[in-house]
Hints:
The chain is of the alpha+beta class. The chain is built from 7 helices and 4 strands.
Amino acid sequence: MQKDLNYYISLFKDNSRYDFIKDSKLQETLYLFSGYVSFIYYDELIKNNYSEELKEIKAHTIFVYLGSIIESIIYEFVKSKLTDEKSKRKYLEIEEFKSLQKIKETENLHICRLDKKEINLNDSINFNALINGAKDKNIISEKILKKIDNFRKMRNLVHINAFLNYDEEKIIGKLEEAFIDTKEILDYIEDNI
């Protein structure tokens, strides 16, 4: 990564940047999170005297939290673009576990059958289904969707591996790239509201 990259990414240019968001809890979170989000670069962590545990906690917490905010903003953005009620009611398909069948009583293994189910936009929806819905409806450009999906994958990787041993140096460059992409993602949303 270039060392002259800004270590801070502004989520807000002004208070009205995300005025299309009607959910009061999300508005409150975004307000509290206004200002800047700093990603603690791995090199910066090494320079400081943080313990290994603190380094991981700081990096993981920031990335996972930012991922949830990006997901919420995209959800509200997609919702604002769907004008007819039919689309709002049934525009996404999500894979849902329909049946669980035990293999043996003594084992915790299950066979799962995945079925497609149309869901209401107001129902619970995961990040991947949201990205697929935005793609199917051509709401967000392919270039930005790739960045969003990459961010989602990196957030999941960090979240899943939060308490596992893995080679941080191998993925830190990808994390930095995904983090930097958030500016382009948010600028796109702002420009297309």
